[in-house]
Amino acid sequence: MFAVLAHVLCVSSLWSQALFPANRATGVNPDVQLRLTFEHKPVIGNAGMIRVFDAADGRVVDQIDMSIPPGPTTGATGAALTAGYISAPYPYDNLPKGRTNANTKPGTPTAGAEPPAAGFQLTIIGGFTDGFHFYPIIVDGNTAILQLHHNLLQYGKTYYVEMDSSVLQDPGFAGIRGAQAWRFSTKSAAQAPRADAAKLIVSTDGSGDFNTVQGAMDFVPDHSARRITVQVKSGIYHEIVYFRNKDNVTIRGEAPGQVRVTYANSEVFNPHPVNLKTNEVPGTFPSRRAAFTADNANGIHLVNLILETTVYGQAEGLLISGSRNILSHVHVIGTGDALQVNGPTYIVDSELTGSGDSILGRGPAFFERCTLRSNGVFMWIRNTQADHGNVFHNCQFIATGPQPTTLARSPKNNASTYPYAEAVLLNAVLTNINPKGWDAADLGGNVHFWEFNSRNADGSAVDVSQRVGWSRQLDSSKDAEIIRNYSDPTYVLGGWKPALEPGDN
User: Fold this and answer.
1) Are 384 and 363 contacting, i.e. CB atoms less than 8 angstroms apart?
2) CA–CA separation, 370 and 353 (whole Å)
3) Which of 114, 113, 111 is nearest to 123 (CA)?
4) CB atoms within 10 A of CB 275
5) 22-58 as b/e, with b when 16 or more CB fall inside 10 Å?
6) Phi, psi at residue 193, to the nearest 5°?
7) Which is more confidently placed, 3 or 38?
8) What tens digit of pLDDT does each residue of 298-329 get?
């Protein structure tokens, strides 16, 4: 039986630590994130080794060299990555020549016992052909969370961990040494979920089938014809989640607001893959900068989740590409491009918090009863004439910056490629919106920036007399058919009628 309570290991007369999994724990999930809880908030070191050994033969299964920086923390934007839950910035902003993000090369191995060839930490996530930069250690309160390289631990094995004293700085911490100091055994193959399991449980305490959302999604077969539910228990999940080619999967948090997937990811930290086209075309790769990415994924239902990136820049909380995807009671938190939607998506009873161009993508996307907050322009639309863009039905827009902002933009470097950008607001409640409403470079009147019945927070009608001339106020009589059509998600989403599963609302 898995030992949930951590064993206390004294490493000096001055200090003690709690280990997770506990020393000699059994029934551990192979996707476990190792944790050390201290009496004080520890500081991450920039030297020393973390090693995991196979107890059967002493073979090094995984190792992390803390002298290798996690990833680039400053880039062309000049934005530094600083996350509130990281105890101190990694001291690698001024890297030697040659240590650039171009070192992330296709085919990079998952590292394991071999040091990465590039100048940054690398790991494979979700089978992506390029390595992701990652933080080997994240500090949350007094707990240091250790992220091993993905998919190296196996079922039915016993492992032990050694750690140099320089890995973490805390009074009295002398490191971990020897085959008996911190060892644990993973579940047997017979205890693993069945290959045809219709439901998987994720829990940070190890009581479920997996400790991480990524571990569960790695287990889910590609293009499943039947629906699989991943039930995520309440907690904070410090991980990049990336999966592709998954169909008919529901990822449902235990309760609204109780499950947070969070990471300090961004375009600077994990830039676009080298020599790989990244856009909306099926079969190509999206950017790697989001905290949570679902790529080429169809019939994905995300329910009762907070998806958050914690750094400033081009950094989505969620990037989702595919078809027939649903978000219900999801709160997406990001900065420039906080949410990216490519392909028919229905978003209901959800929230978005961003800082400008907060919604990016090609659509079509239908938002219903959603609340959107942004301290910059709310969206940058890129749909073609073949698809609708973003349609908002009974939604609330709250500009959070010191100055009023606009609802959407279609700038000159976008209009020549996507001259049919579309954003339609029906029965929206607007707070602190610039009187002109919209920003765009209109090419021949093709941009659809439309409103109907926009209201202030007190219920009064919004004064639209200063709206830009190429936007349009829909009339309840003359435009009755347009209003009726755009109020119907099936019309907007290309004929797909979205339907929530039991428990999704």
Assistant:
1) no
2) 11
3) 111
4) 8
5) bbebbbbbbbbbbbbbbeeebebbbebbbbbbbbeee
6) -60, 150
7) 38
8) 999 999 999 999 998 888 999 999 999 999 99
3-class SS of residue 102: helix
Chain centroid to Cα 5, Å, comes to 29
Name residues whose C-beta falls within 8 Å of residue 450's C-beta, 6 or more positions apart in sequence.
423, 424, 425, 471, 472, 473, 474, 482, 486
CA distances from 473 to 371, 434, 465 (A): 22, 16, 10
N-term to C-term CA, the chain: 35
Nearest of 347, 388, 361 to residue 279 by alpha carbon = 361
What phi and psi, each to the nearest 5 degrees, are found at residue 210?
-145, 155
Could you tell me the CA-to-CA distances from 148 to 31, 138, 185, 369, 423 in Å, in that order? Answer: 9, 12, 16, 40, 43
Helix spans in 39-143 (H)? none
The 10s digit of each residue's pLDDT in 349-372 is 999 999 988 998 888 999 999 999
What span, in angstroms and rounded, lies between the C-alpha atoms of 383 and 493?
12
Q: Are 404 and 396 in contact (CB under 8 A)?
A: no
As a whole number of angstroms, the distance between CA 393 and CA 21 comes to 47
What confidence tens digit (pLDDT) does each residue in 249-274 have?
A: 999 999 999 999 999 999 888 887 65
Average pLDDT, the chain: 85
pLDDT digits (tens, 9 = 90+) for 380-424: 888 888 899 999 999 999 999 999 999 998 866 565 677 888 999
